[in-house]
Design goal:
By secondary structure, this protein is mainly alpha-helical. It has helices at residues 3-33, 35-55, 57-70. It is elongated and about 65 Å long.
């Protein structure tokens, strides 16, 4: 393997490792951005719990997968 190809491969590996470490932070930022909307729909406690579960990396993915399979939210919206 030539030197430029080796350097390209090394750089891509380091960049992908660094990006994969930052993915949970992006998920937390998105969850916090949706906090206000969740609190309006589900109430203070329900919205806070829903956002907290979504912000935790693997728990949030499992929650979303469960909601998709069930076809409804785990934490129901409040009644108006």
């Amino acid at each position: 393997m030539s030197i430029p190809a080796s350097l390209t491969r090394y750089g891509a590996t380091r960049l992908s490792r660094r990006f994969s470490r930052s993915i949970p932070f992006f998920g937390a930022v998105i969850a916090l951005a949706a906090l206000g909307s969740a609190i309006r729909r589900k109430g203070l406690l329900g919205g806070a719990v829903d956002t907290t579960l979504n912000a935790i990396p693997f728990v949030g993915a499992a929650k979303i997968l469960t909601e998709t399979v069930r076809g409804r939210d785990l934490i129901n919206d409040r009644r108006m």
